[in-house]
Design goal:
Helices cover 40% and strands 30% of the residues. The protein contains six helices and eight strands. It is globular. The model has no long low-confidence stretch (mean pLDDT 95).
Length: 142
């Protein structure tokens, strides 16, 4: 289970270092093989390859009425592998689609990650907190 957030920087080639706390697990369980794709919210999703393969089957099995979602998720999916320095390359197409500049945020969301442009994430997170559904909060004891 991946959790937490990491402020990261894309280098000039669009590479990003996977934080050590996640890198070790991903190397041990996935041999550094990951898949990046677009998310309807405007960020990218980063999946361990084995998790993505299950998701890919679920997405492909959706009815024809979900064709736009299939195009977004499957049509944008790109397999990536960590290099010897624990970095992955985010393609120019995916960087442009998510508006990723130099400063990014990687958020662990259990079985996968979201990758956001940092200024976009900062604005979005404030908006998300303001829109929290009280009935959902009641289901969690703090």
């Amino acid at each position: 289970m991946f959790q937490g957030s990491s402020a990261l920087t894309l280098d000039a080639k669009g590479r990003m270092s996977i934080p050590a706390r996640h890198r070790d697990v991903l190397l041990a369980t996935e041999e550094g093989r990951l898949t990046l794709t677009r998310h309807p919210d405007g960020c990218l999703m980063l999946y361990p390859r084995s998790i993505w393969e299950t998701k890919r089957e679920q997405i492909a099995a959706l009815p024809a009425s979900a064709r736009a979602l299939q195009r977004l998720l499957l049509g944008s999916a790109q397999d990536v592998e960590m290099d010897g320095a624990g970095r992955i390359l985010v393609s120019p197409e995916l960087r442009a689609a998510a508006g990723l500049e130099r400063e990014v945020m990687l958020l662990g969301l259990g079985s996968n990650f979201e990758l956001w442009d940092r200024p976009t994430w900062e604005a979005r997170s404030i908006d998300d907190v303001n829109k929290l559904d009280a009935s959902i909060l009641e289901q969690i004891s703090f």
